[in-house]
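Entry for BIS(adenosine)-5'-pentaphosphate complex. Fields follow.
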Amino acid sequence: MVIQMRMILLGKPGGGKGTQATLLKEHLDVPQISTGDILREAVKNGTPLGKEAKNYMDAGKLVPDDLIRGLVEERLSQDDIGKGFIFDGFPRTLAQAEGLKKIADKLGISIDKAVYIDVPTDKIVKRLSGRRSCACGAVYHIESKRPKIEGVCDACSGKLYQRDDDKEDVIKQRIEQYEAQTMPLIDYYRKEGKLVTIDGDQDIDEVFNDIKRGLGI
Ligand code: AP5
């Protein structure tokens, strides 16, 4: 059975969006679209987008909506989204949600569900300061998701690194940005009848099972 699913993952920085998106993309066989990963790749490659985004990202601030909208429109024009997609880290503002609606209308599609992974703020610093990332997109944690060999990615054997924005002062700023700009999206998608709320303060597998149950997949 082919499941078609166009979904958004919402939640605080470090709330587990990337972790769950990786599991869901395998399960659904649809692409994960992480605006954070796309921006980090652009920064690494020194593209005009990367140069413009870098200062915002280093400061824990959101990148301006018009840059994000262009990036998303381009990504959704690619051929691999026929069976759906998982947005991880987009939309982040009401303007981005409205922008997404316009892009979707133009493409003749609509968002099916917005999954909100709810994690208490006091757990976030521990999660982010212990996170270790790989260039291939895999994400680990020094306590809750350890790689088989310390410092080495299980998936591609790449060297794990700590993200520049996973420092305590930047994390604080990211949480403030989330509360001011992204939290209103919970109500936005609730009013659209698309919101599925999941308790994110459980083991990774339990969160994944709850998401599958919540989506009926
Ligand atoms: P982005 O990369 O999107 O960062 P974020 O939203 O802050 O989210 P994270 O990637 O930090 O966390 P996550 O929720 O994916 O958690 P993860 O699964 O890794 O954005 C970075 C920056 O780019 C932004 O600050 C902004 O500047 C810019 N940007 C990106 N998108 C933008 C947009 N649309 N508009 C404007 N600007 C944008 O998990 C975290 C850790 O916890 C890991 O170590 C993981 O192993 C562990 N973990 C996960 N789940 C569990 C669990 N259930 N129990 C225990 N540990 C767990």
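NOTE: The longest helix spans residues 168-182.
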